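Exam revision sheet. Question 4 asks you to relate a sequence to its structure. Input first:
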Amino acid sequence: MNISVFVLIISFVILLAVSVPISYSIGIATILTMLFTVQTGPAVTTVAQRMATGLDSFALLAIPFFILSGKLMGRGGIARRLINFAKVIVGVFPGGLAYVNVLACMFFGAISGSAVAATSAIGGFMIPLMNKEGYDKNFNAAVNVTSATTGLLIPPSNILIVYSLASGGVSIAALFIAGYIPGILVGLGLMGVCAVVAVRKKYPVGERLPVWEGVKKFFDAIPSLLLVVIVIGGIIAGIFTATEASAVAVIYSLLLAVVIYREVKVKELPDILLATVETTAIVMLLIGTSTAMSWIMSYENLPQNVSAALIAMTDSKVLILLIINVLLLAVGTFMDMTPAVLIFTPIFLPVVIQLGLTPLHFGIIMVLNLCIGLCTPPVGSVLFVGCGIAKTTIVDVTRYLLPFFIVMIVVLMIITYIPELTLFLPRLFGY
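Answer key, structure tokens:
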């Protein structure tokens, strides 16, 4: 390991350890590393140039639009309607509210493209309701936190757009389609854990609704669910690109929240736009600094060295993929998803390509892996939100999270070693 790489790693770890925000940690560590390579002026200029270059991408325009769409959906009464629809489907089983929580998070996460938004919107309704029905509040938080991450796999998903950028241009449409089966498998696995806990704890059976009321709740939810059909259907049919689809999503969400459901007032739109700008600024700063760090790592041949080291360690494809998954699971416990994808994709992608994996397959593996990190301490953003809503502590929730983690890791291994589960739908649609 040369001195520049050593400085990069040590400075980054120290900055994280003293609670410097992740984007600043990445940027400062990158500049310090550059100082060991060139003089001060060119170092700062080069990092700034690389940040600007990293953000100069047409595909990234989709991110602020999808964020705005998610904000409108979160305030527009969508969550309540999706919960009511989920009750019709799975609410009548023992522990039915737990299944409703999972299914509603899958629906809302897919519509909003945000795990934090799904945790907040669905958890805000479901956790108090489950508490009232006698469910353990720590179990309720664990269900909500883990199931919210499924929306990062089921499109539209901002993190899949980021991976497309980091991988050098994997089709966003193909990534969107590839995420369906893995996302659904994770959701079904989480429901399986809920079923076991519901039987052991003797959680109550949900209320059986009259047929007419069930039909009404179904039709109430259709306009919300149509967003996914319009966005993904339009991309698959070639009507618009993923970036154009994000603008369509905003227009549809605006009509739904303001005109059809009438739960967002026109006077509330400036606040929603401001919140969107704040979130977009955070995401773009992360992308810019992470792109600069990825460049300096490539400049120092770190991806090539890691690739050579892994290949030299063993010639077993199974073992190398296991090592990569373990490393990504460790990364996910202390690093946010966006910088993790931007930094580690250039490192591991050459390795998996040598093993015969496609960049499309690896993208889903990486995102599913890092989804687990969103639910783990010490920096799991979704975990913090879920615990805040449930009014409990991370320590108390962690014990209930363990069986959910096990199921998510099992699904991760299945997706890793059975590529067809990821590639079947993209191939079916000609990608």
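Marking note for examiners. Residues 269-299 form the longest helix (31 residues).
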